[in-house]
Amino acid sequence: MTNITADRILILDFGSQYSQLIARRVREAGVYSEMYAYDISEEDIRNFNPKGIILSGGPESVHIEGSPRAPQVVFELGVPVLGICYGFQTMSEQLGGKVEAGVVHEFGYAKIDITHQDKLLHGIADENNQSQVWMSHGDKVARLPEGFVSTSSTPSCPFASASDENRKLYGVQFHPEVTHTAKGVELIANFVHKICGCGSEWNSDNIIEMRIAQLKQQIGDNKVLLGLSGGVDSSVVAALLHRAIGDQLTCVFVDNGLLRLNEGDQVMQMFGENMGIRVIRADAEERFLGALAGVTDPEAKRKIIGREFIEVFSEEARKLDGVKFLAQGTIYPDVIESAASKQGKAHVIKSHHNVGGLPDDLAFELVEPLRDLFKDEVRKLGVALGIPAHMIYRHPFPGPGLGVRILGEVKKEYADILRVADDIFMQELRASGWYDKTAQAFAVFQPVKSVGVVGDGRRYAWVIALRAVETVDFMTARFAHLPYELVDKISTRIMNEIRDVSRVVYDVSSKPPATIEWE
Ligand code: XMP
């Protein structure tokens, strides 16, 4: 089997909000990449054995004392280097050029005039020899290092890109990794394929083949336990492990009573019946609801749900004999982000991931087959492994489930009402095509009674809020501008079909200042 990570690109992160996107774009071009903080050691860079190096953008100015620099070895290895934005500036400065402090911050769309066609800009130009790019910078390169030529410019930026093709050094002031740069994908493909000479081995089928071989080797004939939640990551881990080791895998699915309508049955049918995976269902609704009785504080509810999960899962795990490994759906952004929060920057360290607080007597070794994959790669893998697309492209669902969508105290009566309301909302979003246009949508139970009229009488019943947001990163979000006719249809159905609901409201708050969830 070919080693599909042999052609590999190293990305050094200078702290730009777009750094992870660079790694994703490189992988979308079929080339394996990893991202490390800019100051990893020379030895680590050599050991990584990159076919090319990309220096990311960053928020700093090279003029600030102590601002980050690329390790000098980057320019000495003889492999191609692409500097993006700050990466281009520090490369220029480090190689003898000059960076000018920006008076005006250039932010947004710009058109570059391509003045010299190098390998990087191959196929980028339109009929006017221009290309649309996305700029976001204050400083700019004012004098190129020796050996470099300017390859494009904008009215405010004489060196929008430049290169020294003899030394295989390239720089762009704009951001090819964001979709606003019209030919960004092509530019990155030019770098990794035409300039670095990488093949295109990094794709779902090859990743699956490689991962299965690795899992077989790591696990041998031992037994593996996996907590299946029904979410994308644990589902893909289950499918992958099942292919690799078959019956040596046992999944535990904890039904906490806070899941969506029929979700427990669907998980059991999908993984148990359709895929033939051994799944133990722990029906723990009463236990969770019992522990939540009388509790209204959202953070206290989250803690209780987390604690009960660990206890139920541990009890199930103890019933199994001879399990050596615990599988987890950790993905690459978790690795980068958990390292970043420790170090204050993106720093990929090979630490043992936290096992989610299992008790000491359950000392498993970890299996994390998605640890080096981005979410979009995990999704593609899932589809290639035969998991239905509607499960793979489902909106995210929080760990505490309906526990944080029932405001205040959680009761079974409330959860049952909310499940039906949420299901009606989802049915209508899917039927109208709005499900895929929103990033997350759900119903929220309001424990207040509002008056309504039924026939000649008045009835006091509960209130359901609908929440639908558009977002890419979930850090900011705007409420989805659902058509009034659709909102009308949903609210009418909810009030007609659920006796105990007398009023439906639509949440028109954006994040910030509101959050996506109500608790
Ligand atoms: P907020 O409400 O913070 O949500 O704007 C951002 C994203 O995080 C999800 N979320 C959670 N996920 N456990 C989770 O696993 C939680 O306690 C939790 N709280 C919020 C939320 O659904 C949204 O996708």
Automatic annotation (TrEMBL):
InterPro entries according to UniProt: Class_I_gatase-like, GATASE, GMP_synth_C, GMP_synth_GATase, GMP_synthase, GMPS_ATP_PPase_dom, NAD/GMP_synthase, Rossmann-like_a/b/a_fold
Q: Which GO terms describe its cellular component?
A: cytosol
What is the active site of this protein? 85, 175, 177
Q: Which CDD domains match?
A: GATase1_GMP_Synthase (cd01742), GMP_synthase_C (cd01997)
Q: What does this protein do?
A: Catalyzes the synthesis of GMP from XMP.
Q: Tell me, what is one Gene Ontology molecular-function annotation carried by this entry?
A: GMP synthase activity
Report the EC code(s) recorded for this entry.
6.3.5.2
Q: What class of enzyme is it?
A: ligase
**Annotated PANTHER family:** GMP SYNTHASE [GLUTAMINE-HYDROLYZING], GMP SYNTHASE-RELATED
The keyword Nucleotide-binding appears for this protein: yes
Q: In its keyword annotation, does this UniProt entry include ATP-binding?
A: yes
Task: Pinpoint the GMPS ATP-PPase domain residues.
Answer: 202-394
One Pfam family of this chain: GATase
Q: Which organism is it from?
A: Moraxella cuniculi DSM 21768
| UniProt catalytic activity | XMP + L-glutamine + ATP + H2O = GMP + L-glutamate + AMP + diphosphate + 2 H(+)
Lineage: superkingdom:
Bacteria
Going by the UniProt record, its keywords in alphabetical order are:
ATP-binding, Glutamine amidotransferase, GMP biosynthesis, Ligase, Nucleotide-binding, Purine biosynthesis
Query: What is this protein called in UniProt?
Result: GMP synthase [glutamine-hydrolyzing]
Gene3D superfamilies listed in its UniProt record: 3.30.300.10, 3.40.50.880, HUPs
The entry marks the following residues as binding ATP, namely 229-235
Quaternary structure, from the entry: Homodimer.
Pathway given for this chain reads: Purine metabolism; GMP biosynthesis; GMP from XMP (L-Gln route): step 1/1
SUPFAM superfamilies from the xrefs? Adenine nucleotide alpha hydrolases-like (SSF52402), Class I glutamine amidotransferase-like (SSF52317), GMP synthetase C-terminal dimerisation domain (SSF54810)
